[in-house]
């Protein structure tokens, strides 16, 4: 249950059917092109879309906008030390800025970087520095049998080292929770194992801590050893094995923008710290603000502390589970158990009549908007061309934003889509216009509905 009430109201509206149809058409059947004021329940992403608390808004008034030595930086530094246990931080404008700072200092041409699963921007920054990102999840990660499906398979990391040589692996990464693997959690035992492998390889151990609070909550619920601990204690424990952190404040920082690199105060990391500092100044800003306004540093300092409060995190993860349950009760095929920030729907199973080349995930995303002005995002063959990913649609819940009635609306919208499916009224889609970079296709490509009988064999 929510342990807060609303004080600031942000009106939303459900456009009528005609408007929804014309929005879809104008958007080229790509929901990134919709006007957000024509979206009723927006589950596009949980990144930077949450609601700040009165304490965060109050703290913003004390923002110290000094270029150097800002008191707001000091408050953020203290918060990171208390909540995450790291002494040195380099603020950045958001998570990918922090990735650029750290991975540019760590990764060189010809390197290999293992991770449980690389998030898109992480993959891109490793590759941009000449490295090869290598995903090492367990082969049966999404079988539904693992309590910690997000874990890294350390044997795959050892095998990679045998193949390419330990000296080609400058860092071992671990992403908590495993965003690209349905937001599944990682156990503290696995964090410990990853630390050991990093030591064997003489590699820096980096934790992507974007959803560290959600991960800590799952650990407390599922890992016997931690059943009696507070989420705040588990949060620190799981991070205590890392040399460095990358953080996006837009996730468990409970702010709309911001991020940072954190480094342990260990002489062995002094060189890395010096290199990262240089890059921070070059790309983000002076080391006491790094692309953030003083007021934004203040909001994140408070947000990090709120993220590990029991009442907040239980409600947060519980809401995601409830949405998953509500959809499963209506025979919607969802990934179980649900992760920390989103519900993933298998669109190929939900719309079996639509073949992969007609983008069943994108068809479902369009139907959710058409029937209920609900916005999700496709993460299947439309977003990731030339991979054999499952046809997933992700419904991410913004933090502290929607209530039970909104979840009910989403579930009812799925019922209406199912009715249209059963009546044979849902079409697949074809791309009419796409950008040059295939990796960026789902942000800007345009499509059109196509009835199977219209399709021709010749091009
Ligand atoms: C969001 C995210 C990032 C990048 O953060 P931005 O603030 O979006 O730049 C990196 N890693 C993970 C796991 C994320 O979820």
Describe the protein in words.
- This protein has 459 residues and is α/β, with parallel strands linked by helices.
- It has two domains: 17-39 and 310-458, Alpha-Beta Complex (Aspartate Aminotransferase, domain 1), CATH 3.90.1150.10; 54-307, Type I PLP-dependent aspartate aminotransferase-like (Major domain) (Aspartate Aminotransferase, domain 2, 3-Layer(aba) Sandwich), CATH 3.40.640.
- Helices cover 40% and strands 13% of the residues.
- The protein is built from 16 helices and 14 strands.
- The chain has helices spanning 17-26, 54-60, 71-84, 95-106, 120-128, 154-164, 188-200, 212-222, 231-239, 270-283, 294-307, 310-329, 347-350, 360-372, 404-422, 441-444; strands at 41-42, 88-92, 112-115, 132-135, 171-175, 204-208, 244-248, 259-263, 342-346, 374-375, 377-379, 392-396, 428-433, 446-450.
- A five-stranded mixed β-sheet has the order 2-8-7-6-5, with helices on both faces.
- α7 links the parallel β5 and β6.
- α4 (95-106) packs parallel to α5 (120-128).
- The longest helix has 20 residues, at 310-329.
- The radius of gyration is 22 Å and the shape is globular.
- Residues 455-459 have low confidence and may be disordered.
- The structure holds pyridoxal-5'-phosphate.
- The site of pyridoxal-5'-phosphate (PLP) has 15 residues, from α4 and α5.
């Amino acid at each position: 249950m929510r342990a807060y009430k609303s004080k600031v109201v942000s009106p939303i509206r459900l456009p009528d059917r005609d408007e929804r149809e014309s929005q879809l058409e104008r958007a080229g059947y790509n929901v990134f092109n919709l006007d957000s004021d024509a979206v009723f329940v927006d589950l596009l992403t949980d990144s930077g879309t949450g609601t700040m608390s009165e304490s965060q808004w109050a703290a913003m008034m004390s923002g110290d906008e000094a270029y150097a030595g800002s008191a707001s930086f000091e408050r953020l530094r203290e918060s990171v030390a208390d909540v995450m246990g790291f002494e040195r931080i380099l603020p950045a404008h958001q998570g990918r800025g922090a990735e650029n700072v750290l991975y540019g200092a760590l990764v060189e041409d010809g390197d290999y970087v293992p991770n449980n699963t690389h998030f898109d921007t992480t993959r891109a920054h490793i590759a941009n520095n000449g490295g090869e990102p290598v995903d090492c999840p367990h082969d049966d990660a999404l079988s539904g049998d693992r309590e910690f499906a997000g874990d890294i398979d350390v044997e795959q990391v050892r095998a990679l080292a045998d193949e390419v040589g330990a000296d080609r692996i400058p860092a071992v990464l671990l992403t908590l929770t495993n965003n690209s693997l349905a937001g599944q959690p990682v156990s503290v035992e696995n964090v410990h194992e990853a630390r050991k492998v990093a030591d064997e390889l003489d590699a820096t151990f980096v934790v992507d801590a974007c959803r560290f609070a959600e991960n800590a909550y799952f650990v407390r619920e599922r890992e016997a050893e931690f059943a009696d601990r507070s989420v705040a204690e588990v949060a620190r424990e799981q991070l205590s094995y890392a040399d460095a952190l990358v953080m996006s404040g837009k996730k468990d920082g409970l702010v709309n923008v911001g991020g940072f690199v954190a480094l342990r105060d260990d002489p062995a990391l002094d060189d890395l710290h010096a290199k990262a500092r240089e890059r921070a100044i070059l790309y983000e800003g002076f080391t006491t603000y790094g692309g953030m306004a003083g007021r934004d540093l203040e909001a994140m300092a408070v947000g990090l502390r709120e993220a590990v409060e029991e009442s907040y995190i239980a409600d947060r993860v519980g809401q995601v589970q409830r949405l998953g349950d509500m959809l499963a009760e209506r025979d919607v095929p969802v990934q179980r158990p649900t992760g920390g920030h989103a519900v993933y729907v298998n669109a190929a199973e939900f719309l079996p009549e639509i073949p992969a080349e007609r983008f069943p995930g994108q068809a479902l995303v369009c139907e959710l908007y058409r029937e209920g002005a609900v916005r999700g995002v496709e993460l299947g063959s439309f977003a990731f061309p030339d991979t054999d990913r499952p046809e997933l649609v992700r419904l991410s819940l913004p933090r502290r934003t929607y209530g039970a009635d909104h979840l009910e609306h989403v579930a009812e919208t799925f019922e209406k889509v199912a009715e249209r499916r059963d009546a044979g009224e849902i079409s697949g889609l074809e791309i009419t216009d796409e950008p040059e970079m295939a990796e960026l296709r789902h942000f800007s490509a345009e499509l059109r509905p196509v009835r199977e009988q219209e399709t021709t064999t010749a091009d």
